[in-house]
Amino acid sequence: MFKVNEYFNGDVVSMALNGAEGKATVGIMAAGEYEFGTSTVEIMTVISGALTIQQPGETEWKTYKKFESFVVAKDVKYKVKCTEDTPYLCLYK
Predict the structure, then answer these.
(1) Strand partners, 5
(2) Partners of residue 51 on adjacent β-strands
(3) Residues 6 or more apart whose Cβ sits within 8 Å of residue 89
(4) pTM of this prediction?
(5) What is the DSSP-derived secondary structure letter of residue 8?
(6) Could you tell me if 42 and 77 are in contact, meaning their C-beta atoms sit under 8 angstroms apart?
(7) CA within 20 to 30 Å of 24's CA: 38, 57, 91, 93, which one?
(8) At a CB cut-off of 8 Å and minimum separation 6, what does 63 contact?
(9) For residues 39 and 48, what is the distance between their CA atoms, to the nearest angstrom?
(10) How far apart are CA 15 and CA 62, in angstroms?
(11) What is the pLDDT of residues 19-44, one digit of tens each?
């Protein structure tokens, strides 16, 4: 069964599933700025558009575009900016 998650007053919505490779979510972020916390390692892939990320402990922001991925460590907070509605895939390890 799928589980729908909503964050930031519905500006970020995802659908969770348990697949052959483990837990994953597919979602969309409305244009805006967000801060997320992790409880596992997360592998994020941008489906279309772009996400600009500030990893924990870093001052620089890096932009990831369509089909590019980034990894976020376990038990950290990271910041995300997007200028357009952006769909993503997140795998949890």
Answers:
(1) 14
(2) 64
(3) 24, 25, 26, 44, 45, 47
(4) 0.91
(5) T
(6) no
(7) 57
(8) 50, 51, 52, 53
(9) 25
(10) 26
(11) 787 899 999 999 999 999 999 999 99
